[in-house]
Design brief:
Blueprint lengths: L2 H15 L3 E5 L8 H12 L4 E5 L5 E2 L2 E4 L11 E4 L6 H10 L4 E4 L10 H14 L4 E3 L5 E3 L17 E8 L2 H14 L3 E6 L8 H10 L5 E6 L5 H12 L4 E5 L4 H11 L8 H8 L3 E3 L2 H13 L8 E5 L2 H13 L9 H8 L8 E2 L3 E2 L7 H12 L6 E5 L5 H8 L3 H4 L2 H15 L3 E4 L10 H15 L5 E2 L2 H19 L2
Parallel strand pairs: 1-2, 1-5, 2-4, 5-6, 6-7, 9-10, 9-11, 11-12, 12-13, 14-16, 14-17, 17-18, 18-19
Antiparallel strand pairs: 3-4, 8-10, 15-16
Helix pairs in contact: 3-4, 5-10, 6-7, 10-18, 12-13, 13-16, 16-17
Length: about 500
């Protein structure tokens, strides 16, 4: 794409992702439909621009006057959200185009995915109108979530307003919504999320190209059910993957999944054999489900951009160390034995008896002072072979101390101090640390422990330190990081 063409395209996207004036076409005063739901979500999340509502009967909704027609709105608009019945969508879209809208998201269903001639014809009309000068997301989609501008999904008034480096392109609205919520709790922060549904106009290839050039995006996630032009998509994917990790979850690889894809977004599925082979050729990262995509994105977004081979593990309990060694080997990583000089210095500050410092480091009990843990991390980082360190912290064991003292577990657990000293060790040594916070106490009687673990997670994430629930999940994410940067270095 020529520079002037890209600049023109970029300006259109800017008006879509950061609109100053929005129209919602199809706001009902009866019940909570898509139009009224998206309006309430936008108001609650704090969208700062102007919002105009359209209902053929006029009236008002939550104190806002409704226009009977798009044409009645004073001045131009930047972006339209259309939530009317499928047969009324083409007229609404054309009216928004004439009002100067750069783009529109069509939440309405009943198009090509229905398999009915009427729906197929309506989607063709949508494409024709888009070709006259308005970019369309959808139909049959949830649209755009952009934390910076306050655009959000329906129903998603409680998504994070904190921007980050991860973009997500999803053919599924439900997947986009779930991932945005999961990202908020796990530490994945988004630049933009786009649910494009049937993809009558904007879809996977063009969105991938856009995010490949977007300076706010460093990691690109994709959930794909089908692609429109395979050759073009993989050419763009190869180009983008040279610059940024692209993590892909491909739906519909099984026979049953392929049938479900057709009824969901009218897309063709794919081959379980062909996709992994092609994605490997272009150095894209393939994952098998949404949790794996989230964990990979957390690692890509918070860890320095390189390959990780040698690790040290610090935690309480001999069995944890044995399991860590086994998992490291199966993940293509190693846990080299610390030299005697380093191990002796660790042993000098660790509690006795019960501690060991060979790598893994067994700190004997979960109540070791955070300052001591920070010092162990500093000493371990002196081994030049170590690329990164893993801290397995058994904070849930502070519940026993809570029961003994009668004090709330979150008040007696030094998670803030542990995060502080861990962060200081990272900054002083330049060696990344991955934190694992396992919690076997999840029943209703341990809701205070569940709260504690979330507070601890946020304390580490707030300092840019990735947190995982389980070491196996952490190492699986590292495998994807290693595969990507290793593949890029081999080019």
């Amino acid at each position: 794409m020529k520079l002037k063409d890209w600049k023109r395209t970029e300006a259109v996207y800017e008006r879509m992702f950061h609109p100053r004036r929005i129209v919602i076409v199809g706001v009902s005063t009866e019940g909570v439909g898509f139009g009224s739901g998206i309006y309430m979500s936008l108001r609650t999340i704090g969208f700062a621009g102007e919002i105009f509502l359209v209902n053929p009967k006029g009236g008002s909704f939550l104190g806002a006057d409704m226009y009977k027609k798009v044409e009645d709105i004073p001045g131009d608009i930047d972006f339209a959200i259309i939530a009317v019945t499928a047969r009324d969508v083409p007229d609404a879209l054309e009216a928004c185009r004439k009002k100067g809208a750069a783009g529109a998201e069509i939440m309405s269903a009943g198009f090509k995915e229905s398999g009915q001639p009427e729906g197929i014809a309506l989607e063709k009309q949508v494409r024709e109108i888009a070709g006259r000068g308005i970019r369309v997301i959808g139909p049959n989609c949830f649209g755009i979530y952009c934390p910076e501008s306050g655009l959000t999904f329906m129903p998603a008034p409680d998504l994070s307003r904190k921007s980050g480096p991860v973009a997500f392109i999803s053919q599924s609205g439900g997947m986009a919504l779930d991932y945005a919520h999961e990202g908020k709790s796990t530490g994945v922060r988004f630049s933009k999320v786009v649910s494009f549904g049937n993809g009558a106009d904007l879809r996977e290839t063009e969105l991938l190209r856009y995010f490949g050039n977007d300076p706010q995006t460093r990691v690109i996630n994709m959930y794909i059910e089908g692609i429109e032009n395979g050759d073009e998509f993989f050419a763009v994917l190869k180009e983008v993957s040279r610059q940024k990790p692209v993590v892909i979850y491909k739906g519909g690889l099984s026979a049953a999944g392929s049938r479900a894809v057709t009824s969901h977004t009218a897309s063709m599925g794919g081959s379980r054999v062909i996709w992994p082979s092609i994605l490997k050729q272009v150095n894209a990262v393939q994952v098998g489900d949404m949790p794996e995509m989230i964990q990979a994105s957390l690692a890509f977004s918070l860890l320095p951009q390189r390959v990780y081979k040698n690790m040290s593990v610090i935690g309480g309990g001999g069995a944890l160390g044995v399991a860590a060694a086994d998992m490291a080997e199966s993940s293509g990583m190693e846990m080299p034995q610390f030299p005697h000089a380093i191990a002796d210095r660790m042993m000098a500050i660790l509690p006795k008896p019960g501690s060991s410092a060979g790598n893994p480091v067994d700190v004997a009990n979960p109540f070791v002072p955070p300052k001591t843990i920070g010092e162990v991390l500093r000493i371990g980082a002196e081994d030049k072979r170590i690329d990164f360190q893993v801290l397995i912290s058994l904070l849930s064991h502070f519940k026993s101390m809570s029961l003994a003292t009668g004090k709330p577990v979150k008040e007696i657990t030094p998670y803030q101090e542990l995060a502080k000293y861990t962060d200081e060790a990272i900054k002083e040594t330049g060696k990344p640390v991955i934190v694992v916070l396992p919690n076997p106490r999840r029943s209703l009687e341990f809701m205070d422990v569940v709260e504690l673990m979330e507070l601890a997670r946020n304390a580490f994430l707030g300092r840019g330190i990735p947190v995982f629930d389980d070491l196996r999940l952490a190492l699986r994410a590292l495998e994807h990081v290693n595969a990507y940067y290793g593949g890029r270095n081999d080019e």
